[in-house]
Every structure is written in C-alpha cells, then in structure tokens.
C-alpha cells in the first residue's frame, strides 16, 4: 500500500533535486548542527508544543525509527494498516530538520497536524525548546552503547548525502570521541537526558534492553503513555517492530527518500540492528584507545550501558 503521504513526501524530495548536497555543520551554542538547521534555529527554539505532544529523543542511529513505530502502533491499538498511512517522517515529524524547498521542514509538517503529535528530535537536552519542559510533555529517550552507535552512524553518514562526508572509519572514531559529528557529543547527549530524567519525567530506554526483551520494553512504553492494550496486541506490536518486518515495511524503512538523498545501495537505512556489531569494525588498538577515552568522558556517570547482550 502506497499512501498519499508517501507520494507527496517523496515527490517533494525529488523536486528539490540539485538543491540537496552534503551540508556543512555550524555550531549552535557549541553543538555542531547541519547548516540549514543552524540557520533556522531561532524558529526551532521558539516552537511551542501542546502539553499532549510526545517527544521521542535520541542521538542519531540509536533506535529512533524503531521507537516511533512502537509508539504509533500502541496509539493505534496494533493496527498495522493504520500505521501504513504515511512514512515515518510524516507520521512523526522530525522537529529540527530543515531541507531546501519544496521539502517540508519538521516545523512545516507539525503546523499541519493537530495535537496530540509524536515528535522526533536528535537535539541534546539543552537545545530542546523549553516549551516541552514547561508544558510537561512526555518524553521517551533511547540510548545505545557508544561503539554500536558510532558504527551505525558511520554507515548512515556514508549513505546520507545531506550529512558531511564521514571519511575513513579511523578518523570517524576520532570525530565521534571529540563530539565533532552532527548533533554533537554522544557522551554529553546521553548524560544530559539521564541527569534530567527524574525531574522532567523522561522515560529513559536502552537499545540493548529493547533487543534483549522487546516485549518488556513495549509494555514499559505502554504504561508510560497511560495506555492499555491487550496481550495479543502487545505480541503483534513486538512482531511488527522486529528488525526484519520493519526493514521490509516501506512506511518505516525510509525507501520514501529517493537515492540522491539516501543512497541505500551504499548502505541500507536499516542495516543490521544488532548489539555488538562494533566488534566487526574496531581494531584492538582502536578499541583500547576508545575505551580509555570513554572512561574519562563518562567518569562519574552511572548510566548502565552494555556493549554486548
């Protein structure tokens, strides 16, 4: 089923054509953001959500789309067809994303929707518009262990023709450690939401827990959203949001984004979805260097990350 939402979104990207390029990053309050986001940050910062809106926040490539699909299915009582009404970025707009016209920005899409809305962001805690906290919006944060997150982000940057050129893997590891990638430091990102999770009522999830026991985490999300669905519906949601099913789902696998933007011949948007894939990419020397730096950057933090399950 190809929804009208998919056609409109895809056609707008195709019309943008030559305007799309690998945009440089520009610091906003010390955080590197894609140029178009940085240039429009005042409008993003001024966004006022409705108290009923839900924010899904992650560092890039930490399980965002997976969580968006789980939430959408929970809100629609496991109705798979209802959740194929449009691609993920149309059903759950990306708050800060700005692209060349006629591609709608996240703010443009949100203006066309009535609350309650499910909103995605990769912004670190300190750059999230204050209205989310002032209006006590529910927020789900998903964190993924640093090494797997780095590998996934590297492959994404290879295929995403709007992100800066990632260069060789060895140099990318250094850029990740130094917080030079789009949306900044992974370390500051995961710690920022962790430190605020109780004061701001943030549901803090771990990618590794979701892989280990997806049913348990779906139930946690359901309870946090004050929803109640049957055991049968929960089982259906777990099945529909398996990596295999989502990779085959045109409304979730970003096949709605044409190849001049997301070149999935280089790397699929949904590549592996595994825990521990970092072992296939880090050399012993890289791993040792990374671990030593990780200890320094995460010193004093008690976030229970796991690099294997």
From TrEMBL:
<comment type="similarity">
    <text>Belongs to the sulfotransferase 1 family.</text>
</comment>
<keyword id="KW-0808">Transferase</keyword>
<dbReference type="GO" id="GO:0006805">
    <property type="term" value="P:xenobiotic metabolic process"/>
</dbReference>
<feature type="domain" description="Sulfotransferase">
    <location>
        <begin position="51"/>
        <end position="301"/>
    </location>
</feature>
<protein>
    <recommendedName>
        <fullName>Sulfotransferase</fullName>
        <ecNumber>2.8.2.-</ecNumber>
    </recommendedName>
</protein>
<dbReference type="GO" id="GO:0004304">
    <property type="term" value="F:estrone sulfotransferase activity"/>
</dbReference>
<dbReference type="GO" id="GO:0005737">
    <property type="term" value="C:cytoplasm"/>
</dbReference>
<dbReference type="InterPro" id="IPR000863">
    <property type="entry name" value="Sulfotransferase_dom"/>
</dbReference>
<keyword id="KW-0128">Catecholamine metabolism</keyword>
<dbReference type="InterPro" id="IPR027417">
    <property type="entry name" value="P-loop_NTPase"/>
</dbReference>
<dbReference type="GO" id="GO:0006584">
    <property type="term" value="P:catecholamine metabolic process"/>
</dbReference>
<dbReference type="Pfam" id="PF00685">
    <property type="entry name" value="Sulfotransfer_1"/>
</dbReference>
<keyword id="KW-0963">Cytoplasm</keyword>
């Amino acid at each position: 089923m190809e929804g009208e939402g998919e056609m409109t979104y895809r056609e707008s990207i195709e019309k943008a054509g030559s305007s799309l390029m690998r945009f440089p990053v520009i610091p906003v309050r010390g955080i590197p953001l894609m140029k178009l986001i940085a240039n429009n940050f005042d409008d993003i910062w001024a966004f006022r959500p409705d108290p009923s809106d839900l924010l899904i926040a992650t560092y890039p490539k930490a399980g965002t789309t997976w969580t968006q699909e789980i939430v959408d299915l929970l809100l629609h009582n496991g109705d798979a067809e209802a959740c194929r009404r449009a691609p993920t970025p149309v059903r759950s707009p990306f708050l800060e994303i700005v692209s060349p016209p006629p591609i709608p920005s996240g703010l443009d899409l949100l203006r066309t929707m009535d609350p309650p809305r499910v909103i995605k962001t990769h912004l670190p805690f300190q750059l999230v518009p204050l209205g989310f906290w002032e209006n006590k919006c529910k927020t789900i944060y998903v964190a993924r262990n640093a090494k797997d997150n780095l590998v996934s982000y590297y492959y994404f940057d290879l295929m995403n023709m709007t992100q800066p050129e990632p260069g060789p893997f060895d140099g990318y590891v250094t850029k990740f450690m130094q917080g030079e990638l789009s949306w900044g430091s992974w370390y500051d990102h995961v710690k920022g939401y962790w430190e605020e999770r109780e004061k701001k009522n943030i549901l803090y999830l771990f990618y590794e827990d979701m892989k280990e026991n997806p049913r348990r985490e779906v139930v946690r999300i359901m309870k946090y959203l004050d929803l109640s669905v049957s055991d049968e519906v929960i089982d259906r949601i777990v099945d529909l949001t398996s990596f295999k099913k989502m990779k085959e789902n045109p409304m979730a696998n970003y096949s709605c984004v044409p190849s001049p933007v997301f070149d999935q011949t280089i790397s699929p948007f949904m590549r592996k979805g595994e825990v521990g894939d970092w072992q296939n990419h880090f050399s012993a020397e890289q791993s040792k260097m990374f671990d030593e730096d990780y200890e320094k950057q995460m010193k004093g933090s008690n976030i229970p990350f796991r690099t294997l399950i």
